[in-house]
Amino acid sequence: MSDYVSAPDVAVAREALARLKANMRVTIKGKDDVIDQTLVCLLAGGHLLIEDLPGVGKTTLAYSLARSMDCSFSRVQFTSDLLPSDVTGISIYDENVKEFVFKPGPVFANIVLADEINRATPKTQSALLEVMDRAKVTVDGAAHTVGAPFMVVATQNPIDYEGTFPLPESQMDRFLMRVQMGYPLPADELEILRSPKIGYDAIALNAVATRTEVLKLQALAGKIFVEESVLDYILKIVTATRTEVEFKAGVSVRGGLALRVAAQARALLRGRDFVVPEDVQEMVGPVLTHRLSLGRQTSDALEERRTVLAALRRMVGALPVPV
After folding, report:
1. Exposure winner among 10, 42, 61, 205, fewest CB in 10 A?
2. Do the strands 69-70 and 209-210 form a parallel or antiparallel pair, or are they unpaired?
3. Which residues, other chains included, contact 149 with Cβ-Cβ below 8 Å and sequence gap of 6+?
4. 125, 49, 153, 90: CA torsion to nearest 10
5. Buried/exposed code over 235-274 (b: 16+ C-beta within 10 A; e: otherwise)
6. What pLDDT was estimated at residue 108?
7. Does residue 58 surpass a pLDDT of 90?
């Protein structure tokens, strides 16, 4: 494929993404913005952290995304007694062949749902670091590659909840985006109340996109044009976080790259072959807030997230927008 993104390519992508969005709306009521952010993360080839209070549909969102695509799917329920080998796999001695044979863990799937990831110990959480960064798992010195596309969709409750462990900064940095569900509007919640109660794993959704289509969409998103002034705008935002007195430390180079690829993916989702400043502005919150922490103590984690987001918005609002 050439580096040029044609209008027909964008039109085909937009139609495929519309199918995915419509399919997810069957189970996710009144959360079009959250669905959009989830699809942006998929297009950008990143990993998604869904964080919110219990019972607002985090697992349902992840499950709806997985079932909307004709890809392999696995779910891992993270608990305090989960071991790293329960996630990645283990080498077992086979008497028949007289050698150790690798038995892949649930991480060997296209879409991996890490449910309540912060209920596992930091050691088990760290088992995901390599595979989220390199799409491979190393066990007993041997590297095993997972298939493409590969996406970890993790859910977590606020870290203040009893029995949870905060994700280390290195783990948080592996997630391209963090989104929050929030409570539905009254009309949408009423529709949910009218529906028969079924478990999320009993949700009947047909796949509306193939594995090949998903890979093509991801390749196309990476070729969306980013003009030099927009790149400079991204750099100014990232640099400003490093001098903002509210933050303990600024965004890393990885964070700047994440903001760029997310903006490219949003542009494609909106049916454009180029990035505009609005794409960058809309992605600042989901891409950067979980990479920043305050330089002072707050009463709880949710208050810190709101304060970080408010500081980010104020900071971005003070920067000149490229024309």
Report:
1. 205
2. parallel
3. 42, 45, 71, 110, 211, 214, 215, 218
4. -10
5. eebbebbeebebbeebbeeebbebbbbbbbbbbbbbebbe
6. 95
7. no
- Residue 120 tokens, joined: 């596992």
Note whether 174 and 291 are within 8 A (CB): no
Contact 211, 70 (CB under 8 A): yes
Q: What is the mean pLDDT of residues 200-214?
A: 84
* Residues above pLDDT 90, as percent of the chain: 58
Q: Which CA distances in Å does 166 have to 35, 125, 194, 232, 307?
A: 25, 10, 36, 34, 18
**Parallel, antiparallel or unpaired: strands 142-145 and 136-139:** antiparallel
Encode pLDDT of 279-309 as tens digits: 999 999 999 999 988 877 666 677 778 888 9
DSSP letters for 211-238 = HHHHHHHHHHHTT-B--HHHHHHHHHHH
CA distance 40 to 231: 19
Q: Which amino acid is at 14?
A: R
pLDDT tens profile 129-148:
999 999 999 988 889 999 89
Structure tokens at 222: 């990476």
Residue indicated by tokens 């979980």: 290
Chain-centre distance for alpha carbon 94: 37
Residues 61 and 50: their CA atoms lie apart, in Å, by: 9
What type of residue is 183?
Y
What are the C-alpha distances in Å from 139 to residues 84, 87, 134, 201, 274?
Answer: 11, 12, 14, 31, 41
Q: Is the dihedral of CA 31, 32, 34, 38 positive or negative?
A: positive
Amino acid 99: pLDDT: 85
Single-letter amino acid, residue 162: E
The pLDDT-based confidence of 200 (bands split at 50, 70, 90) is low
